[in-house]
Amino acid sequence: MSIKRLLIGRPLKSTELGEQKLNKKKALAILSSDALSSVAYGPEQILLVLVTVSTAAFWYSIPIGVGVLVLLTALILSYRQIIFAYPHGGGAYVVSKQNLGIFPGLIAGGSLLVDYILTVAVSVSAGTDAITSAFPSLHEHKVIIAVVFVILLTLLNLRGVTESATILAYPVYLFVVALFLLIAVGLYNIATGHVSPELHAPVGTPVAGMSLFLILRAFASGSSALTGVEAISNAIPNFKEPSPNNAAKTLLAMGTLLAILFSGIVFLAYYYGIAPHPEKTVVSQIAEHTFGRNAVYYFIQGTTALILILAANTGYSAFPLLAVNLANDRFIPRMFTVRGDRLGYSNGIISLGLLSIILIIAFQGQTEQLIPLYAVGVFIPFTLSQTGIMMKWIREKPTGWVPKLIINSIGALISLTVSLVFFLTKFTRVWPVLIFLPLIVWMFYRIKKHYEAVGDQLRLTTCEPAVPITGNVIILPVSGITHVVDHSLNYAKSLSPDQIIAVYIPFEREDIARFEEKWNRWRPDIRLVTLYSPYRSIITPLGKFIDTVHRKASENDYQVTVIIPQFIPKKGWHNFLHNQTSLMLRTYLLYRKDVIITTVPYHLKK
Amino acid sequence: MSIKRLLIGRPLKSTELGEQKLNKKKALAILSSDALSSVAYGPEQILLVLVTVSTAAFWYSIPIGVGVLVLLTALILSYRQIIFAYPHGGGAYVVSKQNLGIFPGLIAGGSLLVDYILTVAVSVSAGTDAITSAFPSLHEHKVIIAVVFVILLTLLNLRGVTESATILAYPVYLFVVALFLLIAVGLYNIATGHVSPELHAPVGTPVAGMSLFLILRAFASGSSALTGVEAISNAIPNFKEPSPNNAAKTLLAMGTLLAILFSGIVFLAYYYGIAPHPEKTVVSQIAEHTFGRNAVYYFIQGTTALILILAANTGYSAFPLLAVNLANDRFIPRMFTVRGDRLGYSNGIISLGLLSIILIIAFQGQTEQLIPLYAVGVFIPFTLSQTGIMMKWIREKPTGWVPKLIINSIGALISLTVSLVFFLTKFTRVWPVLIFLPLIVWMFYRIKKHYEAVGDQLRLTTCEPAVPITGNVIILPVSGITHVVDHSLNYAKSLSPDQIIAVYIPFEREDIARFEEKWNRWRPDIRLVTLYSPYRSIITPLGKFIDTVHRKASENDYQVTVIIPQFIPKKGWHNFLHNQTSLMLRTYLLYRKDVIITTVPYHLKK
């Protein structure tokens, strides 16, 4: 317990919740790390596609980058509208559910739920890559490093939102500063002619083997840099009042930063003629090219690693909130709605941590392979929520709805296109979506159905009244004449039931008469039933006997109670020294028979 | 359940026990496999020591072999006397305990308990070696093969003694036939001059670097061929009547067979000039030398493998019986005294199987390293039980006790010498005995102490009478107004306690008044206590409340019962969908508070 306190801090009262709200600066840090960090791998993804043709094709990254910027603008404008339309949090699940129906809502929700797990796994692995790029000797410990980071993030989030935001703010701003510095110095070097213009092929150079398919594929890959832009619109309730305005401003700031960083990296990579390298990231190569392997290089690598790892934190902000929404609608277990000691939704936080650790271990930290899956899992809910908002405008027709509709229609169309391009051009990587998404949605419905069934059975108004209880029969299994039996019998008598039956189950025929005689001398007033068990089983004969008693009792509306005495040893290991019959018996009766089970503990004193 | 039936057969009644007794032929098979199989590795152990000097030293195996035969004779004669002195089973534990005291008894018992686990691990690994000598491609699957054999043996033994004896009889006799054939043909070849006498150095050739230390070491190693001779004296109750006579005859037969096989192998190995080889056992080399790699060779390898694996069965016969003796004396958990469905002591059988699998996996099947440890673990109880019998003769002085005393004194002395030689010459291999033996004996005493303490507390005659119960207070935690609560309340009322207190634990302050009002409209007759829990914990406030109630109740000899309603979902996976509060609450109350806990199951119908 004290370890828990040390790790996550003292428990907070429910009334302390208000203090945990975010101001704009902190919100930008906590909610943008995912989007901003994507520039560390987005441009690289474009080059990875182009390099399959030839390095001469690298100039295509410039028009493709422009395409990504157009997409970014459309998404930012669309999400700005969602913020004002859903000031209480416009996650894709809520927006799709309200405007398109439950099924599209669940598709969006299921897609995002998995996506946040991928966010954590992919971001932390990429961050670990940045570290091992700088320190190659750590390469073999990649998986362990990544897992440790996930554990640290989980603990941070169990501590609570504000505290993790404070810790998060610095690295995000440091990363922005580092990349601005990199881009500025890089552009300055180019402007002053320190970089040979022969490193790259000029834009427009004809490239043999280039196809529309590859361009689309590179575009889809590049748009993975946009994952995370939805985070702000999901988290509006975490902002200080006026939440929607603050959120909208934060969104614009993030969009601007993202556009600048993305363009800068794409341009520098193109101008320096950088090719993707299995052991050095593109950003790391640009930094080496610009500064050499000096302190500034390590600063850039360090902040990149940090922001990538902290990008995972977006998953930690979003997953538990989405889980609460789904759990309130009874599509996932209700435990996700319970706030922990520090007011965070601990079950969501812990589940997210565990699942991403499993992913990291399963893929041995090679989560680059998951990036396309992750990106498509973002663009499906993007499409659904934009379409949802379109429907809202068409249905409600508020003042000035036509331009709003146009903006969201463009957003929806582009998102849909990107999703389709992923399926068309990267099917080998994204097919799992077609399996797990239906599975998850089916699971949602199963869970919902169960909760509804339970609700029906529990509701007092809709159900038949409880069966009346006119009397009680108590069954007490005894293994000898001891204090434990004495105590349990006393208790049974004090409840003044209509009948008490002591049951003795000997394994040897000789024990029957011997025990009956002993019993009748000790407690002649209590009826003893002896069930000889030649097969040395206690549960089978007792179960049969209980069935008989229960049948007769039910006829008279009598309730059957089985009293099970249980030793409570002073030390844990002592449990090994006692037959676990009580436990087995209780489990069996609880699940198989309709009887009430009373455990009379007998606390051993030494 | 039906899988269990398929694997181990239908359950047997306790009265069917008599049918499971052994006749001499079966007993020889079941109880000698350990001792006879030792000739497959005993001679090799001698050569492994001698080869450290030079191959010229191999002639020493002849006098050392003679020494082992003398030791064998002494042991057989000593054990013959033990059989008649302890016709109900004279395991080293019983004999040492009765004649020397509890502490020496526990040393012998603990030593043997560990030794039987080593028997299984070492024999099965050696058998697997014999198989992989013949089929080298299986070498890499050694551990899995060995583990599968242990599982099969465990199942056989769970089926019961007689059935495993029937299966065991064939391989043991086949092995004896195979080795007789090998020795006969080998001797015939030598006699007819088909074997070059230059393969070996003549007996008496001076060898540089030979020392008494090495001779003793080789002797101790060779005496590992004698492990298992005690098995018959431990298992007398398993023999048909007259058990002691049958057992004594079986013992003599076994001793004779063992002497012939051991001498034959040692002599052939010497005459052929065979040197130990890491991938081919000595017996395998002799067989190859005599027959070539033909069908007879494979027959010998096959029966060797089989008998080695079945030698492990000696462990399965002896371990559970020893465990019963120790458990009856309360030195190990009582569950070892319970007969399973097939009348075997299943807990002992299963524990033995599990522990030896752990050893095999931990040593990756390289259990040759364990042979010295195993041998010393046999000779310590040998020494103790012979000394025990000596004491018996001295104390009781039956007719003709002097020659008996002399025989057992020689046995004790030789066993003691062998034990000491092991410590002197193989300390690096046998030191673990000095750690685990004291640990085990300490554990025996701890367990005994606990059982005695429990016995004292339970005994009606020695303890204070049970506290009288003059009335009942029932506490019922409620989470809402549902059928479950209704049903539990009805039950509580039917017990007509002196007081029923419903407890509601809201996490939000607003809930207090709302729920109290609702309750008072629904059940104004039942007292409701509301415990506001700002830290969202159910257990802490409820625990405190129960303490308060309990304190007041105890003053008036009232008993406190907590009624916990529990959902029983129709399907196992549904458990995930319900907060496990009931379970956590019950565990907490059971272990931490002195209250009775009644579980009212609510079986969900869908």
Question: What's the arrangement of secondary structure elements?
Answer:
Two copies of one chain form a homodimer.
Chain A: H1 2-8, H2 24-37, H3 42-50, H4 61-85, H5 92-100, H6 102-134, H7 142-159, H8 161-191, H9 212-222, H10 231-234, H11 243-272, H12 282-291, H13 295-328, H14 346-362, H15 371-396, H16 401-425, H17 427-430, H18 432-458, E1 471-478, H19 483-494, E2 499-504, H20 509-522, E3 527-530, H21 539-555, E4 558-568, H22 581-592, E5 596-603
Parallel strand pairs in A: 1-2, 1-4, 2-3, 4-5
Using brief descriptors, characterize the structure shown.
22 helices, five-stranded parallel β-sheet, homodimer, alpha/beta, 5 strands, elongated, 2 domains
Can I get a quick summary?
The structure is a homodimer of 606-residue chains. Chain A has 606 residues and is of the alpha/beta class.
Can you walk me through this structure?
- 2 copies of one chain form a homodimer.
- Chain A is an alpha/beta fold.
- The first copy, chain A, folds into 2 domains: 30-169 and 229-282 and 311-391 and 406-451, no CATH class; 471-603, Rossmann fold (3-Layer(aba) Sandwich).
- Chain A is built from 22 helices and 5 strands.
- Chain A has helices at 2-8, 24-37, 42-50, 61-85, 92-100, 102-134, 142-159, 161-191, 212-222, 231-234, 243-272, 282-291, 295-328, 346-362, 371-396, 401-425, 427-430, 432-458, 483-494, 509-522, 539-555, 581-592; strands at 471-478, 499-504, 527-530, 558-568, 596-603.
- A 5-stranded parallel beta sheet of chain A has the order 3-2-1-4-5, with helices on both faces.
- In chain A, α22 links the parallel β4 (558-568) and β5 (596-603).
- In chain A, α11 packs across α12 and α12 (282-291) packs antiparallel against α13.
- The longest helix of chain A is centred in the middle third of the chain and has 34 residues, at 295-328.
- The radius of gyration of chain A is 33 Å and the shape is elongated.
- The relative contact order of chain A is 0.13.
- The model of chain A has no long low-confidence stretch (mean pLDDT 85).
